Each structure stands twice: as C-alpha cells, then as structure tokens.
C-alpha cells in the first residue's frame, strides 16, 4: 500500500481571500493595522497561534490571543453564511484518479483545526475520501512531523511508501522530517524556488501535472 497525503489551504482549496480577510479582521479587532496579502499568506500552513505569533513577533501573548479569537470568529461567521473556499481546478479529477488505484490510501495533513477541515470536506462531498485526517488539534504546528507520523501509524504504511503534497515550505520540511517524499505545488502560497530549496522532489505546475507525477510515483513504488 502507498499513502498520499494532501495539505488543504493552497493545495486542495483556494482559501486565499478568506484567510486574508479573517486575519485582517482579527488584527483590526485587536486595534492593529492590517497586513498585506503577501505577509499573511506567508504563514499559511502553520497552526493559527503559531502563525499569529510569527506575524507579530514583538506583541505580547494577550494581543496574540485577541487576534486569534478575531480570526476564528471571522471563520465561524463565514461558515454560518455558507461560504466555503472552492477546490482548485483539477483537484477532484486528481483525487478520482488516485481513488482508482487499488493500493493507494489517501490522507490529509493540515494546520486547520479539525472542525474547519471537516466543514470543507463535507461541503465538497469529500468526507469519505481520506482514511487518515490529521489537523492542528492535538499536534504541534508544521513543520514538526507529528501529523505525518500519526498518519503513518494509523495506516500502517512506512514513510518510504508515502508522499506529502503541499504548497508551502512547511509541508516540504515536515515531509522530510518524517522521512517521506514531499511534492510541491505551484499554485499555492509559497513560491516555487522556495519549495525546491526546501527539498521538494518536484513542484507541479497544475493538477494534471501533479496527477501524472503521482501516478508515476505509484508505478515506481509498485516495481520496487
């Protein structure tokens, strides 16, 4: 068996707009100036408290907590209004192609809380697609490998037969720390040169390219 793990934000779903809006709402609620999309998107993938502390390294913990709460409140309001980020073009086709491989198990490793992850999966009809689902709940933030180590333990698949797919250097660093292959994607929140620099085995330019690379990787593992 092979394990293919996906990040969510910036990899499966295009959540750029809602992340920027939610973070700037949290900043405003805390009496702080807004930040540029580039600043905010640079920390996507980290668990929320770590992300806020990274954006505001000189602020005190009380201020961090206010921003975190404002961010969370914005997401609760957004989900209550039925707003869900869209899948990237080709994402569903990729998942379908992988599901057709009888010896492939799919999983998720995301810095989102489990509640947010489940809401997105349900909204897109993907709740039953992923055998293992790892979130920020109960794990250290990426790039710590705990999420991936738990996914490996749950599925019984060794790291040598697993691949992590993500759009940030946090995903690639996490994969390397867990001893597994890391594939980057070009359409997310960290630039391609940074993904290569972090050690990505490849960086796909679009979902058809990623699907082809994954099927090639699966075939190579079958022949090993």
From TrEMBL:
Pfam families: HAD_2 (PF13419). SUPFAM superfamilies: HAD-like (SSF56784). Signal peptide: none annotated. Keywords: Hydrolase. It comes from the Bacteria. InterPro entries: HAD-like_hydrolase_sf (IPR050155), HAD-like_sf (IPR036412), HAD-SF_hydro_IA (IPR006439), HAD_2 (IPR041492), HAD_sf (IPR023214), PGP-like_dom2 (IPR023198). GO terms for biological process: DNA repair. GO terms for molecular function: phosphoglycolate phosphatase activity. GO terms for cellular component: cytosol. This is HAD-IA family hydrolase. The lineage of its organism: Bacteria, Pseudomonadati, Pseudomonadota, Alphaproteobacteria, Rhodobacterales.
């Amino acid at each position: 068996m092979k394990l293919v793990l996906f990040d969510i934000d910036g990899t499966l779903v295009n959540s750029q707009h809602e992340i920027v809006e939610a973070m700037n709402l949290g900043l405003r609620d805390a009496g702080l100036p807004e930040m540029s999309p580039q600043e905010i998107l640079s920390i996507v993938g980290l668990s929320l408290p770590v992300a806020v502390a990274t954006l505001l390294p000189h602020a005190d913990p009380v201020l961090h907590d206010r921003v975190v709460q404002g961010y969370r409140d914005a997401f609760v309001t957004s989900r209550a209004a039925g707003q869900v980020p869209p899948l990237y073009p080709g994402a569903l086709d990729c998942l379908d192609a992988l599901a057709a491989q009888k010896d492939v198990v799919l999983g998720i490793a995301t810095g989102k809380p489990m509640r947010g992850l489940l809401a997105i999966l349900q909204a897109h009809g993907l709740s039953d697609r992923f055998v293992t689902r790892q979130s920020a709940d109960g794990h250290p933030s990426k790039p710590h490998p705990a999420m991936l180590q738990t996914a490996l333990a749950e599925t019984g698949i060794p790291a040598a037969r697993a691949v992590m797919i993500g759009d940030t250097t946090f995903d690639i660093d996490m994969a390397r720390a867990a001893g597994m292959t890391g594939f980057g994607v070009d359409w997310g929140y960290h630039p391609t040169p940074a993904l290569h620099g972090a050690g990505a085995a490849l960086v796909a330019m679009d979902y058809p390219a990623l699907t082809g690379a994954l099927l090639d990787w699966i075939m190579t593992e079958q022949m090993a």
